[in-house]
Amino acid sequence: MSSAVLKISCPDRKGIVAEVCQILADCSANIIDAQQHREDLDSQFFMYVKFDCSELNCERELLENRLKEKSELIGFNWTLSFKDQKKRLAIMVSKYDHCLYDLLLKHKYGELDVDIALIVSNHPDLKATAEHFGVPYFHIPRNKDNREQADQIAVDLFKEQKIDFIAMARYMQILTPILIQAYPNKIINVHHGFLPAFKGAKPYHQAYAKGVKLIGSTSHYANEELDMGPIIDQVTVRVSHAYSADDMVRKGRDMENRVLTNAVKAHAADRIIVYKGRTIIFS
Amino acid sequence: MSSAVLKISCPDRKGIVAEVCQILADCSANIIDAQQHREDLDSQFFMYVKFDCSELNCERELLENRLKEKSELIGFNWTLSFKDQKKRLAIMVSKYDHCLYDLLLKHKYGELDVDIALIVSNHPDLKATAEHFGVPYFHIPRNKDNREQADQIAVDLFKEQKIDFIAMARYMQILTPILIQAYPNKIINVHHGFLPAFKGAKPYHQAYAKGVKLIGSTSHYANEELDMGPIIDQVTVRVSHAYSADDMVRKGRDMENRVLTNAVKAHAADRIIVYKGRTIIFS
Amino acid sequence: MSSAVLKISCPDRKGIVAEVCQILADCSANIIDAQQHREDLDSQFFMYVKFDCSELNCERELLENRLKEKSELIGFNWTLSFKDQKKRLAIMVSKYDHCLYDLLLKHKYGELDVDIALIVSNHPDLKATAEHFGVPYFHIPRNKDNREQADQIAVDLFKEQKIDFIAMARYMQILTPILIQAYPNKIINVHHGFLPAFKGAKPYHQAYAKGVKLIGSTSHYANEELDMGPIIDQVTVRVSHAYSADDMVRKGRDMENRVLTNAVKAHAADRIIVYKGRTIIFS
Amino acid sequence: MSSAVLKISCPDRKGIVAEVCQILADCSANIIDAQQHREDLDSQFFMYVKFDCSELNCERELLENRLKEKSELIGFNWTLSFKDQKKRLAIMVSKYDHCLYDLLLKHKYGELDVDIALIVSNHPDLKATAEHFGVPYFHIPRNKDNREQADQIAVDLFKEQKIDFIAMARYMQILTPILIQAYPNKIINVHHGFLPAFKGAKPYHQAYAKGVKLIGSTSHYANEELDMGPIIDQVTVRVSHAYSADDMVRKGRDMENRVLTNAVKAHAADRIIVYKGRTIIFS
């Protein structure tokens, strides 16, 4: 079975569901899963429809055209993606390798429905790991004087390699607008703190100083405001007074893996819509 | 078996454990549990010793005198409490009753080793509930014009009733220094947010607006800075984009119960030491 | 807005979704949520559709008739329920009251979308609690000699009171077929162990003896095989060697509350289908 | 600072703590942490003492002699281990590599206080992974006809390599008594099910068939009864009806990593005592 995901958003109005379902039915697309969400504050409507497209009675292009016509007529935003066209993922890393390993291993086990196209790092250290998993590794040095230049090199590489989205696997660098604007809501970062608390540098040390009893990690889309992009996933674990900041760093690794890998899975499966700084994530 | 808890804190130095254990051994106090903690940042030492005092070979007063002498000689802070002298708890409530029920029920089941001496409220609403559990209920009206006065009435009542510590079971009022200073590190508040994020009013609405994927609750000692006192316990639960702020309020109740009741248990069992705005909680 | 839930099950075949959606569309029923499930082992298909029925263009009965006709034509099982027709819940208790309190309180807070019609107990002890919440309390004594008789009295009472489903809130009695057969897949029991381990009596003592590091609770539909009915919800919490069986009993209460209350919520919202001894629970 | 761990067990009697502490004090061993446990069923006493041994005023051997004398005089079992003498771990694997990676990575990050001496496998597949981490890899083929022989080869290798304990990282083989008896309570296995439910083969398939809502993993010491050895750690995660057995396998990997790595950490730190088929694990 081959499947596809259609996502729709628009101001809420009557009959939109029926009209969209009709188009799918006309094309012999069999609905597998349909979820809806409504933002009560401003009456915005969101729909996620997953359908079996293995027995379409027309070209995919024709289905797309019909959706385009209808959207122009009644006014809605839409995206359509087919599962057999895997998204291409680029991973950015620095020296810490735990998130990288988690992505590479979960991909190897068939849990991540993407092509891992390449790894970019500002250090040469993890080249052997990339090779062990057979993924091309690009070393793009980056320091405070060449940040724009380095990000431009990365963007050029990503465009050339037809990269769809990017996972910052503890990349530890603040991206310039060059990179962020090239991939809006397509760069997933993991912050090793429970946002919105503990933004910025050394969040575990901030958590220690405050005496929290849970530490957290957050994955989010990177935008131009540091650690303020739309949150995708969060996890917390229990700590006690006996944890030093270093112990928290240690304890935090598994959480960071989970929130980043979960976010990559959700993005790869087209289950996320970003709306007004928040994420709507269909399950 | 009757037990007692000795807590000690002082700048770290050699031999303190041995000297204290010697005093206990001399009095035939059998150590049941001994935990230590050291703050590396400023070399402060903390010790918790629980011992069987059912076969002491001397009066409790004599043991206390020996500890006092030793503490003056070598310099340490100490507290000693006996389990058979139950602490007296006052509960402060407003109109929400879930935390109140949790405390009353857990007490009924024998899980809270305290005497629930009385309930104070700024509303008359929960009087029937207090009566159902056989606990005296005091209605002390409170508004923005009589806050000092109301808190003074409460303090007088607490002093008269020999209250040892206080649980604010969603009391929803900002205490004046009159009450806070009368019971330093003895007033436990529950905040329905994951501190230090989402301080102050309507934390679930703040969480909703930020689009977090976990919501939390925090119990802490009330001090003069709103929602900034030493954290005692924290819990989080998962939410999604589909949760309205009201859904979060609903989901939050069980968390609020847990963090408040856990904090009351830990305080009642003399397992907490406050140091520089953080809590050390022996297990 | 008033909503309704339609549940369908049948051997999987093409077009069923479209045909059902068409009926709903024809009646101006606006789909809010649609979930599907397919059992791969025997190709069984299940669908859950929640729709807005506040602007139906026909009588509810007409919609029902059209579903009936279609189901006879193409062969599927279906149930339709309207949210404004609240289900009537009976609670059965013995002497333990924690699950009872959780149900009564969550109902009071508006979290349980049912009418709590009555409480039945084999002991008089919890009458005052029932009265405190304004729920009728029926004491039906039950011992090993009158079990059939007692269950018949209960069934008669439930029929007279138009009870839709039953929560055994730690009722601690083995029901006879008289009661079980009168309410198939409509009696929710809570077992204080992690089924299928630790069936039968004293599960916490069994867990202690085995030295487990997690204890669990399970809610399930009662059937004629003890503790073997379809599982609805399960929760575990961490314990250590230091927990006695009694400590586990204490720790278990909150879990028992959660699994029972969650199960009652899911049943009340018509989100459960039972198939071959397992539950399909739409979210 | 260099530390040591002393573990003691014996029938409970007065004064044992004092006598042991005295020996430590006489040798200038500074107690860092002391935990006790008492089995109420048969009055057995257990003690864990961690002490700073960096300023002992005597040879370690003398301390050991004094403990030996005292244990013979008053009757207790004891073990003493020094943190600077790292335990040597052997890892046994088959073809699944997730638990292996977790152990190798956590060791690399400094979380596992052991020397990973070697990896043994019944397949050649993971040799490249072993080499990537610089750990010797021994391929010992094993089939149903040569099990005793293969296990004898393993035992000989382990003895020669001075292996202290063994982690079966999803080794997927039933050990013969030859190996089990050579390392009693020193072989840690991970079972991909929530013991004592779902023993033996294909536990996730058993869990699926039963319709559980949580799946679990268990680490335990291997003994001669399959999947019945003393439990060390357990973790559960939530599943739904939508999980196939294969989905559970996928979801289970992170749990299996956690319970095995946690067990290896606890064993490495000398925090475990096995008593009557249960583990006492100091924290």
Automatic annotation (TrEMBL), chains A, B, C, D:
It comes from Lentisphaera profundi. Keywords: Hydrolase, One-carbon metabolism, Purine biosynthesis. It is an enzyme of class 3 (hydrolase). Pathway: Purine metabolism; IMP biosynthesis via de novo pathway; formate from 10-formyl-5,6,7,8-tetrahydrofolate: step 1/1. This is Formyltetrahydrofolate deformylase. HAMAP family: PurU. The keyword Hydrolase applies. The keyword Hydrolase applies. Belongs to the PurU family. It holds the Pfam family ACT. It catalyses: (6R)-10-formyltetrahydrofolate + H2O = (6S)-5,6,7,8-tetrahydrofolate + formate + H(+).
